[in-house]
Amino acid sequence: MEKTWRWFGKKDKITLEMLRQIGVEGIVTALHEIPNGEIWSEEAIRDLQRYIESYGLRWSVVESLPVSEAIKYAGPERDELIEKYKISLANLGKCGVKTVCYNFMPVIDWIRTDLAHPWADGTTSLYFDRVRFAYFDVKILAREGAEADYSSEVLAKVEELDRTITEAEKDELIDSIIVKTQGFVNGNIHEGDFDPVGIFRRLLAQYAGIDREQLRENMRYFLAAVMPVCEEYDVNMCVHPDDPPFQVLGLPRIVTSAEDIEWFLGAVDNPHNGLTFCAGSLSAGAHNDVVKMAERFVGRTHFVHLRSCDILPNGNFIEASHLGGRANLVELIRIFEREKPGLPMRVDHGRTMLGDEKQGYNAGYSFHGRMLALGQVDGMMAVVRNELQNQR
Ligand code: DNO
After folding, report:
1. Of 21, 23, 89, 308, which cross-links 327 as Cys (Cβ 3.0–4.6 Å)?
2. 198 and 225 part of one domain
3. Are residues 301 and 359 in the same domain?
4. Which of 61, 64, 105 has most ligand 1 atoms within 8 Å of CB, for mutation?
5. Same domain for 194 and 215?
6. pTM exceeding the 0.90 threshold for the entire prediction
7. Is residue 227 classed as helix, strand or coil in its secondary structure?
8. pLDDT tens digits for 138-157?
9. Mean pLDDT within 336-350
10. Candidate from 240, 281, 306, 347 with most ligand 1 atoms within 8 A of CB, to mutate
11. Which residues are catalytically annotated?
12. Nearest ligand 1 atom, CA 276
């Protein structure tokens, strides 16, 4: 697989010079400064591409070309936004950037409740705590009917937490769930936004009455509309699975399981309609057998995120070592190296360690932690390639 790295553009403290030194071959990035829904011009794409190439690297994958909310909930401006999306795709294709990652998660992209969960060795990682998440939903967001989505056991713990939680802890929870994890991935809420909870409530309201079936239909509509451009310019679209892979906050999530993936691949059955195989997101769902899913969907996988989660007995999940957890990266690498050796792969997230915590990196996107993970993955890939050679 091609070793790629998510880089957040010229303002990223982690420079292309540093990445070249640690063996990165391809860059995963986006035109982060262009607002969601606006056209990516050929000139702007070429400008960033030339910059990347001047370091001896290539722009391998776009993550993400964001799909605007109105496309997801089928607002009146949907067709106009899709036309713009098609122009951006064509411009990327003309420049030779042909793998485009996006997601179809309503309102909120990936979700964690704790961005610095301590490990015994002094490092920290990302974490999802079911009770704290329910607390956010029931007590902070105060979403109508939220209680119905949680067990009585979880609700009892929410009440318990309510007796001890401080205002500062509440703010931190809001920051973790809807601010710090969202802005830098071109999400709906950004650091410094006034009243993020109010913005969030307004966004949720746009999805009133939209259930799984309707969201699926909107995804099918979007994919069918962009496929002709993908065919013309040989661009591969690859949807990122929902993270975590289950329903949240009363919103439908439709890329959570093997059945969901089968559905969207079949709904628009075109090889350009594919998947970002995010082992981390998928492994956070107890219903997902990640290795089996890789075997089943490798043919339509255009991009891979290597990361692994552990699900704890209380249902919380933690981002595990890239060498451990439920995802079984060794087996995944065996499948991808055998079936599609050229696939772009990036290590996804890493521990915060060795001073990363002082750098203000985007949540999950440390330097040392990701470098360690890349070293581990690089080693696994070398062993797997050796196995494959010996079999020939
Ligand atoms: C989080 C990322 C996601 C991903 C988007 C793709 O770390 O994996 O935010 O980039 O969902 O559109």
Report:
1. 308
2. no
3. yes
4. 64
5. no
6. yes
7. helix
8. 999 999 999 999 999 999 99
9. 97
10. 240
11. 240, 278, 305, 348-349, 365
12. 6
User: Is residue 92 located within the same domain as residue 50?
Assistant: yes
**Is pLDDT at 187 greater than 90 in this prediction?**
no
Given a contact cutoff of 8 angstroms between Cβ atoms, the answer to whether 185 and 109 are in contact is: yes
Q: Give the list of residues 6+ apart from residue 102 with CB closer than 8 angstroms, or none.
A: 64, 65, 66, 67, 237, 238, 239, 240
Give the confidence band of 97 by pLDDT, cuts at 50, 70, 90: very high
Query: Residue 160 sits in which domain range?
Result: 126-205
Q: Is the pLDDT of residue 239 over 90?
A: yes
- Whether 186 shows a pLDDT value over 90: the answer reads no
In contact, 197 and 140? CB cutoff 8 Å:
yes
Instruction: Say whether both 162 and 196 belong to one domain.
Output: yes
Position 29 in a domain:
yes
Query: On the CB side of 387, how many CA atoms lie within 13 Å of its CA?
Result: 13
Per-residue pLDDT tens digits for 242-278: 999 999 999 999 999 999 999 999 999 999 999 999 9
Contact residues for 131 (Cβ-Cβ < 8 A; gap 6+)? 154, 157, 158, 161
For the Cβ of 67 lying below 6 angstroms from any atom of ligand 1, the answer is no
Instruction: Indicate if the pLDDT at residue 392 is higher than 90.
Output: no
Q: Is residue 116 part of a domain?
A: no
Which token pair is 94? 């003309």
Q: Cβ neighbours of residue 388 under 8 Å, at least 6 residues apart?
A: 337, 338
